[in-house]
Each structure stands twice: as structure tokens, then as C-alpha cells.
Amino acid sequence: MNEYTYDEITIGQEESFQVTVSEEMMEQFLQITGDVNPLHRDAAYAATRQYVDKVVYGMLTASFFSTLAGVYLPGRYSLIHSVETKFLRPVYVGDMLTVSGTVKEKEDAYRMLILNLLIKNRKGEKVVKGTMQIKVLDQ
After folding, report:
1. Average pLDDT in the 79-102 region?
2. What is the pLDDT of residue 139?
3. Are 17 and 99 in contact (CB under 8 A)?
4. E-strand spans in 1-139?
5. 8 A C-beta contact, residue 4 and residue 77
6. Hey, CA dihedral for 59, 125, 114, 131, is it positive or negative?
7. What are the CB-based long-range contacts (under 8 Å, 24+) for 128-131?
8. How far apart are CA 73 and CA 101, in angstroms?
9. Closest CA to 93 of 32, 139, 135, 30
10. CB contact at 8 A, 103 and 113
11. DSSP letter, residue 58
């Protein structure tokens, strides 16, 4: 876990990590949320909607932005204030994702970071993009 302080962080700084979406993650997300939409549970149904397999929950994919803030940038001293996302392509079980964030702005008065967010699949295709505001707490 990183422990960047507000003063150590610079505009343009980037952190990233990789994660592979598993069937177990899908099952745990279902248990937490109760989202039984067949697009996420039934490959045959998803195929009738022109998808190659059942689609990973978009909010499961976007939840990796929490890991980005809480573990990588800034890490230990983060408090997420807002996240705005746009889903660009479907994600499927077994996809390896690269989750990254780049510091776009720093708001000194509030010790707030604004990050540009991006998730790409193993083909390098953008699957989610967005922005996040993170307050950097005192040590």
C-alpha cells in the first residue's frame, strides 16, 4: 500500500495495477448486490443481446477505482469524494484489466486530487474511463 502525502503527489503522476475478473468475483458481487439481471448470469441470454458471453457487472469493474485510490494513489491517506465513470465496452469473465489513474489537478485549499481514470482490457481497448476526486487525509 502506498502512503503518498498530499505534498508528495505531483500533477501527471500515474499509478496502475492489473486484475483478472473471475467467476468468483461475479458470484460475490451478486451476493452483495442481489443484481440477478440475466445479462450478467446467463451466457445464452447475453448472446441474444449480441454479447459473446455474460457481461461483467459494470459496477464491479468500476469498483477497482476504489482499489486504485485506497492502495495506489494516494493509498493509505485517501478519502474518495466522487467518482464519475463511463462504460465504453463490455468486460467478460477472464478479462485481465489494467486500472490506471493520473493526477490531473490538485486543489490545495481542500487537499483534493482530481484523477483521470482508465481501465483497459488485455487487448488495450478502453473499457471504462472517468474522473475521481480524492481528499488526501493528514498522516
Report:
1. 98
2. 85
3. yes
4. 14-20, 78-87, 96-107, 112-120, 126-136
5. yes
6. negative
7. 128/58, 128/61, 128/62, 128/85, 128/86, 128/87, 128/88, 129/85, 129/86, 129/88, 130/62, 130/65, 130/83, 130/84, 130/85, 130/86, 131/83, 131/84, 131/104
8. 8
9. 30
10. yes
11. H
The model's pLDDT over 37-74, given as tens digits with 9 standing for 90+, comes to 999 999 999 999 999 999 999 999 999 999 999 999 99
Q: Is the peptide bond before 74 cis (omega within 30 degrees of 0)?
A: yes
Among 127, 48, 47, residue whose Cα is nearest residue 89:
127
When pLDDT is cut at 50, 70 and 90, the band that residue 95 belongs to is very high
Q: Report the C-alpha gap between 132 and 113 in whole angstroms.
A: 8
Average pLDDT, the chain: 97
Tally the residues of the chain.
139
Please give the C-alpha separations between residue 91 and each of 39, 65, 94, in angstroms, as whole numbers.
12, 15, 9
